[in-house]
Structure formats: C-alpha cells, structure tokens
Design brief:
The complex is a heterodimer of chains A (213) and B (173). Chain A is α+β, with helices and mostly antiparallel strands and 213 residues long. Chain A is globular and about 45 Å long. Chain A has two domains: 36 residues; 155 residues, no CATH class. Chain A has four helices and twelve strands. In chain A, the strands form three sheets. Chain A has an eight-stranded antiparallel β-barrel with strand order 1-2-3-4-5-6-7-12. A two-stranded antiparallel ribbon of chain A has the order 8-9. Chain A has a two-stranded antiparallel sheet with strand order 10-11. The longest helix of chain A has 25 residues. Chain B is α+β, with helices and mostly antiparallel strands and 173 residues long. Chain B has one domain. Chain B is built from two helices and twelve strands. Chain B is globular. The chains are: A alpha+beta (213), B alpha+beta (173). Chains A and B meet through loops of A and helix 2, strand 4 and strand 5 of B.
Chain lengths: 213, 173
C-alpha cells in the first residue's frame, strides 16, 4: 500500500521536479562535504625535510665492503644510493603547486643499486608520497607501478630505505621495487630488488653529490 | 631442452599450488595473506568501448602485498560489517611501451573494498570468487587507473569483466 502511494506521488510532474531539485541539492552538498573532508596536507611539514630538504639537492649512499658482504652471504645489494638533482627539485616544485591528497607525489629521487656480482648500476626514478604515519615517504616507480620502498629519517641527515615490513603479528611480508623502466617488457624478466633475507633495510648516510654519480 | 622449456613445468606447478591455496582458503583475500591474481578481459561483446584512447586491456593484475596488508591492519573495522581489504589493480594496455604510452596503469594506493566470504566490493568495481578458484574483476561503475608522474589516466568502463587466476607473487611484479 505504502509503495503504491509512493509510485503515485512520484508520477506527478511537481513531485518529480521537487525530488530532482532535492537530489541535485543533496548531490552538491555531498560533493562539497567530500571535498571538505578529504585529507589535504597544505599545513603539514614535508616528511624528512631535514634529510631531503625542499629546494636542495641531496645524496645518500651506502656501500658494503667485502667483509660486510662476506658476513651476510644472502645480501644481494652491494651498493645503494638515493639522489635528488636539479631535475628532481623541478619536479617537486611542479608537484608542490598542486593540492596534496593521499598518494600525491611530493618528493622525486633516483634510486641506484649495484647488485653483488653485477658490475651494472641499475637505476630507477622514484615518485614519493607521504606515508600513512606522516613521518616517512612511500616511493614507487611511476614507470612500473606496483612495487615500493619506504624512506624514513634516521637522524643526523641519514635515511633508512626499507623494502617490505613486519605486520603487528610479527610476520614479515616481503616486497620489491623495479630497478629499471622495462616492467615485464624485458626478455629476461624484470630487474627487481626484492626484500630477501638480508635486503630489507638499508641505512644511507648523507654524502657529497659526487658519491651518487 | 632449453632452460626456459625446463622451467615451464616448475612454473605451472607454482601456479597450480597458488591457485589451490586460494581456492581452499575459507574466504577471499584472507587476513595477513599476500595474494596475486593475473588475467585478461572476458567481457561480452556489447560493453562500452575503451575511449581516449580506444586501446584495449591486455593484462590485469590484482596485487595484495605488504603495502596493502600494512594499511589494512591500521584501518578501523567497517561499521556496516564485513572485512575491509586493499587491492592494487595494475593494468597493461595493448599500446604499453609505445612512444607516449605508459607500460602500466594502476588504481590509487588506498583503494578500500568491503568483503564477504566470496566477494569484495569497492562500490565501482567488484571481485568475485568463482568455484574453480579464479576471480572475476567486474566493473560496476568503472575505474580510473593512473600512471606516470603527470597523472595520466585511463578508464576501465562500466560493464567490463576480467577473469584472473591465482598466481605466485612474482607474477605481479
């Protein structure tokens, strides 16, 4: 009975107009509410602003010597560096002009990795967004989305680069980052840095830019 | 026998065991469990076409790895019931790698879905577990996928369906 009355009322032109107006008004209000409530970070300081200063190039490196590699035979990484050049600063300025939402890139950098037994230095450009703890960065390769590394501050200008992580249960979940832009297009498979047993966390010290070349 | 041919049975075994593990799980996308599904489009002929550009999808990956699992443990429980999970949807189009085209597109880092035992719903797309262990990714409104640093985006239109098979995590890399 109630349903029939609703159908009957809805069929009158006046009701339709009023209902449409209400629907439009509610849609506009909902859209405004979503825009207002969507988290933005205009007033928030940029994570790692001391180590990866806005407007200033940076270089962080870690090279494992023979003794360190011998002590950790499962480690694949022989050297790792994170560099921000003038090109990255220009990208950061461009991104900074936009409103920042969850996942918006704010830091640009190049990750360079030399693997054990491989003379080639692999490099990948990273776009980094604010991490969910608001104190770290989550970086992925825009060319091969999917993998990511996290960057946290370690004090005195040093940074920690981590791949994968431990859940609250204590279980470690591995992850990866592509080390070139081929994705799955490379004949021998993608070049990927995975969080193996000894490739989960790297401490990188601030260094002169020459160390990152 | 070349190394590549010799590796095929091993790869098939890995994929079978991954598919069996997913099929045997009591729920789709169980807690604290990585997952990777890989597949392609199976849409009916009469679905809205891909537009701007009119390039079809060649591969879809559903990835639930460390970023998604770490995020899930911080999420509040759904007030409306059901589990909340996160998935990364990685899409390859037919023109991948050509000049001016990106190799991959993906949804955002924080795509939340509400799940029952056999299906997860994001509102504009669903993932449904099938009896054979595969899943269907079904557009129920459409999904924008982006890529690159200039926020290029493409759209998976409403009505498109993709069938994906449980695969080793390395297949999502």
């Amino acid at each position: 009975m109630t349903e029939r009355r609703k159908v009957s009322a809805a069929s009158t032109p006046g009701f339709v107009t009023t209902r449409m107006r209400s629907a439009v008004a509610i849609s506009i209000l909902a859209a405004l509410l979503i825009i207002t409530m969507r988290p933005t970070y205009a007033a928030e300081p940029r994570p790692l602003a001391d180590a990866l200063s806005p407007g200033r190039p940076s270089c962080h490196t870690r090279v494992f010597d023979g003794a360190e590699l011998a002590a950790r035979p499962a480690r694949r990484v022989a050297a790792i560096a994170l560099e921000r050049t003038a090109r990255d600063l220009a990208a950061e300025r461009k991104w900074g002009a936009r409103e920042e939402f969850d996942g918006t890139a704010i830091v640009s950098a190049t990750l360079r990795v030399r693997l054990r037994g491989d003379p080639v230095i692999h490099s990948v450009r990273l776009a980094c967004a604010r991490g969910d703890d608001n104190g770290s960065l989550v970086c992925e390769s825009p060319a091969c989305v999917g993998g990511e590394v996290r960057i946290a501050g370690e004090g005195r200008g040093a940074i920690a680069v981590s791949i994968g992580g431990t859940l609250k249960s204590g279980r470690f979940i591995g992850h990866y980052i592509h080390l070139d832009a081929s994705c799955e297009g490379r004949a021998g498979g993608p070049i990927v840095l995975e969080s193996g047993e000894d490739d989960r966390l790297f401490s990188l010290a601030a260094a002169p830019k020459e160390a990152c070349q | 026998m070349s190394a590549r041919v010799a590796a095929l049975p091993f790869a098939a075994l890995l994929m079978l065991s991954a598919a069996r593990a997913c099929a045997e799980s009591p729920v789709l996308f169980p807690p604290e469990t990585e997952g990777c599904y890989v597949g392609a489009e199976i849409s009916a002929a009469r679905v809205p076409p891909y537009r701007k550009p009119a390039v079809p999808v060649t591969a879809v990956r559903l990835e639930r790895g460390h970023p998604q699992l770490a995020l899930e443990q911080e999420q509040a429980r759904s007030a409306e019931g059901g589990r909340l999970i996160n998935l990364r949807i990685i899409v390859t189009f037919a023109d991948a790698g050509k000049p001016g085209s990106l190799k991959r597109y993906a949804n955002g880092l924080y795509g939340v879905m509400r799940c029952s035992a056999d299906a997860c719903d994001a509102g504009n797309y669903k993932v449904e577990r099938q009896s054979d262990g595969t899943v269907l990714l079904r557009m129920t409104g459409g999904l924008n996928v982006g890529g690159g640093t200039d926020n290029a985006s493409r759209r998976l239109p409403d009505g498109h369906v993709y069938r994906l098979v449980a695969s080793p995590m390395s297949s999502c890399r």
